[in-house]
Write a structure and sequence with these properties.
Length: about 575
């Protein structure tokens, strides 16, 4: 089935930009500097040395500073079958169940079997995970996991510790050049449609300022997710879907964009709070906290065998339903019984954050509501991070490797970035393409001014958020079209690039969500409340041709459809 998008100008082919004012070269460009980007850069550098290319150049470009992305904010941890009695098969089963029949089983198998070694390697690199007094790695549990398998650091500061260790490793590797404050705008393609480079907008000073070009032989997108599409999100301000939009414009396939995960327990700061909101990790429920409504009823009990630790789509839906039934803007998380000492040791970051917003979780309930948390879809890749564009690879949240399906299992995201960046580094050195010249391509106007961003975010939250319907999404599609028309600008600045990228991914996400007439994982349709395997077992692939978005439904392989009954022993 192929469905054409609604508007002939729904995806600009290339963005109108000033001619590059400077040019540089690197064999491999990595876009993004979280766990996926820095792991890719470090391992590709090592791989190229081993491949007999000691004089190669690896460049990391990042839109802000190295630690401005989502990795830094990850609280809960990184999942891997490292504990006694746990196995990759059990981790695989939990991942497939959470993914609601939309995972790629081979990708999941790679994730869970290579995960333990990848985490050990992170430890060898200098990451300080939390340990028990007897020296054993401390492992906790989160929603959807049947075993304690989440390694954490600094209690609830896992991402920050991993980011610190990776930045230190990059700083020990002077061969890796870092360009901060650089947005990758568009791919430069050669005559065969393969990667020849990218245009960058560097918000710096000196030689590399403004729009320039980097010529390269391979480009790895590790630019993170699209959380800023929605007005409340746990994601930092930089997550504007830039890598996904660039890939779509450059000819790559975006897959599963309709599967956006809403985290159930995000601290509710009031009706006017916008942008990044404080996450209250699922690990708090893993340690015994539970949800209650305004009457004090534990409404997760009886909804799922894992109750408060059900997969997060189940919990997010239960909270949303209860909010609707009771007319309240949030529910409550009760973690008072954990006690001050435990809170201070295990969740120091969350404790400080909630207190800074006037709630002491040691003595008070925390107001929580779902907010956008993670894009399970992204740039479609094979098992080795290759996209459909020669020389273009994708990893981490920017990618859709197939491991998350319709709903990512908690703490599988850091692991995905780690494992699939290692996989890219395993193949890229031996398949590095020769240098090629970019062909001049027509650039068409398509920029949308930054002042349209809030309207876009509010539309997407209201109509394409936790709960979706045909009427609401039709309204969203119309509003997105009018945002493009009303916001057209030729003023080239970061706000406009980002807003254009947000609009591009919003159009693709909305169209896929409109087409998928069922409820599956994090995609919740009030007009189609059941999962419909007969019609919708498969994936929506979005591509752009002649500025037109096209969606193709690709049926799932039979082996991907459902895990076998029963948890493996
Ligand atoms: C959390 O700590 O609840 C978030 C972890 C994740 O998103 O994997």
């Amino acid at each position: 089935m192929i469905v054409d998008g609604p508007a002939a100008d729904s995806v600009p082919a290339r963005l109108l930009a000033p001619e590059p004012g400077w040019t540089t070269r690197a064999d491999v460009v990595v876009v993004g500097s979280g766990i996926a980007g820095l792991t890719a850069a470090l391992r590709i550098h090592t791989g190229l040395v081993h491949a007999g290319l000691p004089d190669h150049r690896v460049m990391v470009v990042t839109k802000d500073v190295l630690d401005a992305g989502s990795t830094q904010w990850a609280q809960g941890g990184i999942a891997a079958a490292l504990g006694p009695g746990d196995t990759p098969e059990q981790h695989e089963w939990d991942t497939l169940v959470a993914g609601a029949g939309a995972c790629d089983r081979e990708a999941v198998r790679a994730l869970v079997t290579e995960g333990p070694e990848a985490v050990r390697e992170l430890i060898a690199l200098g990451t300080q995970f939390d340990h028990h007094p007897d020296g054993e790695l401390s492992l906790t549990r989160e929603g959807g996991h049947h075993r304690d398998r989440i390694a954490h650091a600094g209690g609830d500061a896992t991402g920050a510790e991993i980011q610190r260790a990776l930045i230190a490793a990059v700083q020990r590797t002077p061969e890796i050049e870092v360009i901060p404050h650089a947005l990758a705008v568009d791919l430069l393609l050669d005559a065969d449609g393969g990667v020849a480079g990218a245009t960058l907008h560097v918000m710096g000073e000196g030689q590399r300022d403004g729009v320039g070009a980097v010529h390269c032989r391979a480009l790895v997108l590790a630019s993170g997710g699209l959380g800023q599409v929605f007005s409340q999100t746990t994601n930092p301000a930089v997550t504007t879907g830039d890598g996904m939009a660039l890939a779509l414009r450059g000819g790559a396939v975006l897959r599963d964009l309709e599967f956006v995960q809403f985290h159930p327990t995000v601290m509710y700061l009031g009706p006017d709070s916008r942008g990044q909101q404080p996450l209250v990790s699922e690990a708090v429920r893993g340690e015994g906290a539970f949800l209650v409504d305004f009457e004090g009823t534990r409404f997760m009990q009886g909804q799922h065998e894992l109750a408060d630790l059900a997969p997060r789509d189940v919990v997010a839906k239960a909270i949303t339903r209860r909010m609707e039934e009771t007319g309240r803007p949030h529910m409550w998380l009760d973690a008072r019984h954990l006690g001050a000492e435990f809170w201070e040791k295990r969740f120091p970051t969350i404790l400080a954050t909630t207190r800074s917003h006037g709630v002491d979780p040691v003595t008070e309930l925390i107001p929580v509501a779902p907010a956008c948390h993670y894009a399970s879809g992204g740039v479609a890749t094979d098992l080795w991070g290759r996209t459909t564009v020669p020389g273009l690879y994708a990893t981490g949240e920017a990618a859709c490797s197939g491991v998350h399906g319709a709903n990512r299992l908690a703490s599988n995201s850091l692991l995905e970035g780690l494992v699939f960046s290692r996989r890219i580094a395993d193949v890229l050195p031996s398949e590095l393409r020769p240098w090629s010249d970019p062909v001049a391509d027509p650039r068409v106007p398509g920029l949308v001014a930054g002042d349209q961003r809030r309207r876009l975010q509010e539309t997407m939250t209201a109509q394409v958020g936790v709960l979706r319907s045909a009427d609401g999404m039709k309204l969203a599609a119309e509003t997105l079209a009018s945002i493009r028309a009303d916001g057209a600008t030729e003023v080239v600045d970061l706000e406009a690039w980002e807003t254009t990228n947000l609009l591009t991914v919003s159009v693709a996400l909305t169209e896929a969500a409109r087409q998928r007439e069922e409820t599956r994982g994090s995609h919740w349709r009030e007009d189609f409340p059941e999962r419909d395997d007969a019609r919708w077992s498969g994936h929506f692939d979005a591509t752009a041709h002649d500025q037109r978005l096209s969606l193709e439904f690709r049926p799932a392989a039979p082996s991907d459809v459902a895990p076998e009954e029963g948890v493996p022993a």
